[in-house]
Amino acid sequence: MPRGTAGRCLAISALLLLGGLRLAGSGPQAAGAERPNFLFLLADDQRGDTIAALGNQQISTPSLDRLVREGMSFTRATCSYPICWVSRSEILTGQHGWENGVTGLGNLNFADGVSFWPATFAAAGYATYTVGKWHMRPKPAECGFTGVAGFYYHGDGKLHPVDQTDDRGVPVTGYRGWMFQSGDGRTRHPDQGVGLTPDISAKFADAAISIIDKAGDQPWLLMVNFTAPHDPLFTPTSTAGKYHADQMQLPANFLPRHPFDHGNLEGRDERLMEWPRTPAAVRDVLRLYYAVIDDLDHQVGRILTRLEETGQRDRTYVIYSSDHGMAVGSHGLRGKQNMYEHTINTPLLISGPGIKPGVRTTAQVYLRELYPTTCELAGIAIPEAVTAESFAAVLRGEKQTHHARIFGYFTGSQRMVRNDRWKLIHYPVAKRWQLFDLQADPHELQNLVDAPEHAAIVADLQQQLAAWRKLQGDPTLRTDPVAP
């Protein structure tokens, strides 16, 4: 069957009923209890350090603070590939990008044999819904979603306002021509705005609430895909005048320039801010960035309130995360195409039945592991195609750790390995290495790769990174030998 076709997605849904599954362990369904709902709230480009309850005192996030109090906060949750469509494709399939075919090189087509998260749940009797941003080639119904609302997708760039700028006067390059439309894309609604608008998060929340309102006895999985706080940055009405540039603190790792070409210095994101980066420019971006996140938090609160009002909160797992973070001036970068903590670390808050409130964990998990984890929590067998590992045992308090090390990658220009203390970044194109001691240097300011006393650590991490690249079938191995 041709790659990326609708037929393949539907065939996979049918196969879920026939075989190709592995046991997910015990869960509510397996124990005979009422099957839980799953509400997955996904931000776009939100750094993991932008939640007040987790230490950021410059921003107001009462709804996310509530989720921190009510559930488990993962302070080392990881996006392995910091680009929207690759990260979201990993989440949707429970596979690494080199496995599911979406590699970040402009390819949006899934490989044959992938298994989609919503299709697995639909085959198990769940109603499955998606709201908001969709950045993949197959349409939602082709991947197992049984309902769509507030669908936001590529539209017609010719309809985009000419020479539009955001609230900082920066030319709009992101989401040009995107608009609300029907799930099959046949009916478009440019009257609701073309491109990002100040109230777009509210529209996504409205759509999510409409689904929650009509939910019946059938258990459901609802994915709400926000665009906030991705650029362009327009001040939402709810936070107008609340944040001021002169009150913003610069990131601890602010730099005017990144010290070398990390593989994306000429990318779209990096062109959104002039070189060299100035304190004034970074503070102005943070002012808007925080205002958009603050409004996003308000919309999340509206959704959670309706969940309570309809009597569904107690049997619903609420998951909040972002597809990746963002530099916003850290390390002299503006965008997300890097392996630093401010980008690969994402917020991940999970609350629901059986999860002890107010727990913070340093367990290293990948976002793509949400798929098998929710399967286990629901008592649904995990498809064999899913290579990601469930971390449900961490949520239940049975384990304190998950991965001894995690890995990251971006095109052919960056590779990374991180354990509980050390991080090694390899730049195959730039032919550079970086070693950071994250315990002593959490902001990654001092590169220790050439320090003689750390030579053994570097060699060990290089060996681990090389082994992972071989195991995963890194397509750049032919041009970049794994040996240092």
UniProtKB/TrEMBL annotation:
It is an enzyme of class 3 (hydrolase). Keywords: Calcium, Hydrolase, Metal-binding, Signal. SUPFAM superfamilies: Alkaline phosphatase-like. Its cofactor is Ca(2+). GO terms for molecular function: arylsulfatase activity; metal ion binding. Residues 1-24 form the signal peptide. The keyword ATP-binding does not apply. Residues 36-380 form the Sulfatase N-terminal domain. The keyword rRNA processing does not apply. Its EC number is 3.1.6.1. Belongs to the sulfatase family. This is Arylsulfatase.
